[in-house]
Specification:
Blueprint (H helix, E strand, L loop, with lengths): L2 E6 L14 E2 L2 E2 H10 L5 E7 L2 H9 L3 E4 L11 H16 L5 E5 L8 H13 L4 E7 L5 E4 L2 E4 L14 E11 L13 E5 L11 H11 L3 E6 L8 H11 L5 E7 L3 H10 L3 E4 L6 H7 L3 E5 L5 H8 L4 E5 L11 E4 L4 H4 L7 E3 L8 H5 L11 E5 L8 H12 L7 E6 L18 E5 L5 H4 L4 E4 L4 H8 L3 E5 L2 H4 L10 E6 L5 H13 L1 H10 L8 H10 L5
Parallel strand pairs: 1-4, 1-6, 4-5, 7-11, 12-13, 12-15, 13-14, 15-16, 16-17, 17-18, 19-20, 19-22, 20-21, 22-23, 23-24
Antiparallel strand pairs: 2-3, 6-10, 7-10, 8-9
Length: about 550
């Protein structure tokens, strides 16, 4: 079976001058159609019909044969039917063969996937069609004008999902039997449509179409590899989710271990796409299905072997909060929680250290910082997504003891999705002004009410600094203690490892801060120097590799 692909590309485009050969994402627009045509198989010939010498040269450069079109077939009012007929008859002479199938392939659909085109040809042959036309299904409530009157094109107003199919021609391709190619038509008797994805349906007719297509072609497939467990906590999960939501222009996939139950629960709640793996090296299925361009590894310290393993499979590897040997082999390292002076004698150019690379959720970029209050009216307690050291309960016991004395203060516990506050004995006690909110979706609401906070030493410290809330810190583990940001110079009172803090120390601390507004004011003022609003754009450039690292 002989197949001919005809790509019509005249030189007289007026909407976008030189449209067919202008560069889109690094190559001429027409190259996308030529590449698709050449990938269809050995029994397929691919020709470009044109009246333009420049289009002719570029088409030959990308491997297509060229059929010269006369001026009469290049006028604005000429339809494609006589143009395709001319190209087919000339091609049969050039290639000395008769064709069974002719495919009109438009150069203005650069997002069309060759696999989609192959499926369309298969459908055409197996179902013995005479002609199929590429369409996109766009069911919408629509209206028309009849005799100067506006009338609906529907009988009943329904949600879009309930409307019948409404097929619009995409112009991407038209497949037909050779016998139906004439000067006046390309349509056979047994005609059908072939639905393509909305993204593949874009036909470049305006500069807006061009901008959309180029943006899609530049889109990367980015994996965020992260785990969240009871022991490790959910800080890395929240960080990756925040970064993932900052990349709406790219394809995102979160990859996590199947036994990291607490983290998986949070990932599912976001509706972000995810895949599960058994271990760090179990990624072949991810590679095959998602084809990642960038792998962002947020799983703490890596070794050389693991990073080199990743780099054999993915073009760019970025690691987060990585103090291991592997960081020296990654394409970029973002260690926002650590200071370089504590960990590297010589800071490498592709390693980014310190709080200027902290990525905060959008709600913190929208919310106004808390204004200082002489009186403590609200105290906020939040120890992360899982609170492995159960520091919530340590505070809860103390608050029960002093609540009656401070009956005008509201105590808000914000617990994470991986922490069962009821099982840990923490109860909502409105009579003592103790309130618990689990898996809070908009924490700035509570932060804006807080005059004092208690927290562990993870990423929440940067959120509290952004909101300028004087905070007492108790670390969950030894690694958190190395997070140097949470010190008095930045507005934090750090009590060290939480499990070692005695109830007496904790009681003295809370009483002292409640009753000494000058100390809280100084802590509040020390936080004013921090502004994290521009960090996200810097982090995105590092991950993508647009920062010349």
């Amino acid at each position: 079976m002989n197949i001919l692909v005809v790509i019509p590309a005249r030189g007289g485009s007026k909407g976008i001058p030189r449209k067919n050969i202008r560069f889109m994402n690094g190559k001429p627009l027409i190259a996308y159609a030529i590449n698709n045509g050449l990938k269809l198989g050995d029994n397929v010939d691919c020709v470009v019909t044109t009246d333009d010498d420049e289009i002719s040269y570029i088409s030959k450069f990308y491997g297509a044969e060229v059929v010269n079109r006369n001026n009469g077939l290049s006028m604005d009012n000429v339809t494609l039917d006589p143009v395709i007929f001319d190209a087919v008859t000339k091609s049969e002479s050039i290639f000395k063969k008769a064709y069974d199938i002719v495919i009109t392939l438009q150069p203005t659909s650069p997002l069309l996937n060759v696999e989609t085109l192959k499926e369309a040809i298969k459908y055409f042959i197996e179902n013995r069609k005479d002609t199929i036309i590429s369409v996109v299904n766009k069911p919408h409530l629509s209206w028309t004008k009849i005799n100067s009157k506006i009338k609906p094109n529907y009988v009943q107003r329904l949600n879009r999902q309930e409307l019948p199919p409404n097929y619009l021609e995409t112009g991407a391709f038209l497949i037909t039997k050779r016998e139906f190619i004439t000067k006046k038509s390309r349509l056979g008797h047994k005609l059908d449509v072939f639905e393509v994805a909305e993204e593949e349906s874009i036909d470049i007719d305006s500069y807006n179409d061009w901008i959309i297509c180029e943006s899609i072609l530049r889109r990367k497939n980015i994996v965020f590899r992260v785990d969240g467990t009871k022991e490790r906590g959910l800080g890395h999960i929240y960080n990756c989710i925040t970064m993932a939501f900052s990349f709406p222009e790219h394809n995102i996939l979160i990859v996590t271990k199947q036994d990291a139950i607490e983290g998986l629960k949070k990932i599912k709640s976001t509706n972000l796409p995810y895949m599960m793996i058994r271990n760090d090296y179990d990624i072949d299925d991810v590679i095959e299905k998602f084809k990642p361009d960038i792998w962002v590894n947020d799983c703490l310290d890596t070794n050389k072997e693991y990073i080199e393993f990743l780099k054999t499979k993915i073009g760019r590897v970025v690691t987060i909060e990585d103090l291991g040997e592997g960081r020296n082999y990654a394409d970029a390292v973002i260690n926002a929680i650590y200071d370089a002076s504590d960990n590297d004698k010589v800071v490498q150019a592709n390693q980014y250290w310190g709080s200027e690379y902290i990525c905060l959720r959008e709600e913190f970029l929208l919310s106004e910082p808390k204004t200082f209050s002489e009186k403590v009216n609200n105290i906020l307690i939040m120890f992360g997504g899982t609170d492995p050291s159960n520091l919530n309960f340590k505070l809860y016991k103390l608050i029960l003891k002093i609540a009656d004395e401070y009956n005008d203060i509201k105590f808000n516990f914000i617990t994470g999705i991986g922490y069962d506050y009821k099982q840990n004995g923490i109860l909502n006690l409105s009579e003592k002004n103790i309130f618990v909110t689990n898996d809070c979706r908009f924490v700035t609401k509570y932060m804006q009410e807080a005059d004092l906070a208690f927290s562990s030493q993870g990423r929440t410290i940067f959120e509290l600094a952004c909101m300028r809330i004087p905070t007492v810190i108790m670390a969950q583990n030894q690694r958190e203690i190395t997070h140097r940001f949470a010190q008095m110079e930045n507005g934090f009172l750090n009590l060290g490892l939480g499990i070692n803090v005695s109830e007496k120390t904790l009681e003295n601390t809370i009483r002292w801060l409640i009753e000494t507004p000058s100390i809280r004011y100084n802590m509040h003022k020390l936080m004013e120097k921090w502004n994290f609003t521009s960090n996200t754009s810097k982090i995105k450039k590092i991950i993508i590799g647009d920062n010349n690292d």
